[in-house]
């Protein structure tokens, strides 16, 4: 059984770009903190390391680094949060993670 995820404050509409970027950074930190748990849940230690997963997550965040619209950033944060929740709640299969 997966350990419960830390309670997350639901992000509404960010009023400023700085606020939206803060939400994105919070999601990144939360995802990085959850990686050891995800590796354990899906038994990924024989396939990929935690640092490789962290690099993959960072590359996904960097891919959207040029977005300047707070509403678009909020939407990306929402989607990222859903993906993270699905991983932690074991709603995905191992091959979805790899």
UniProtKB/TrEMBL annotation:
Main location: mitochondrion
Similarity-based family: Belongs to the complex I LYR family.
Keywords: Electron transport, Membrane, Mitochondrion, Mitochondrion inner membrane, Respiratory chain, Transport
Listed name of the protein: Complex 1 LYR protein domain-containing protein
GO terms, biological process: response to oxidative stress
Compartments where located: Mitochondrion inner membrane
PANTHER family assigned: NADH DEHYDROGENASE [UBIQUINONE] 1 ALPHA SUBCOMPLEX SUBUNIT 6, NADH-UBIQUINONE OXIDOREDUCTASE B14 SUBUNIT
Domain Complex 1 LYR protein: 23-85
Pfam families in alphabetical order: Complex1_LYR
Membrane topology, from the record: Peripheral membrane protein
A single Gene Ontology CC term: mitochondrial inner membrane
Keyword Cell membrane among UniProt keywords: no
């Amino acid at each position: 059984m997966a350990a419960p995820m830390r309670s997350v404050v639901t992000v509404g509409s960010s009023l400023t770009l700085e606020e939206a970027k803060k939400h994105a950074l919070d999601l990144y930190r939360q995802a990085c903190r959850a990686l050891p748990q995800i590796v354990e849940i899906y038994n990924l230690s024989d396939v990929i390391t935690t640092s490789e997963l962290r690099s993959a997550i960072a590359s996904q965040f960097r891919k959207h680094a040029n977005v300047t619209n707070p509403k678009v950033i909020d939407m990306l944060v929402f989607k990222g949060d859903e993906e993270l929740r699905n991983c932690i709640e074991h709603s995905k299969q191992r091959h979805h993670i790899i």
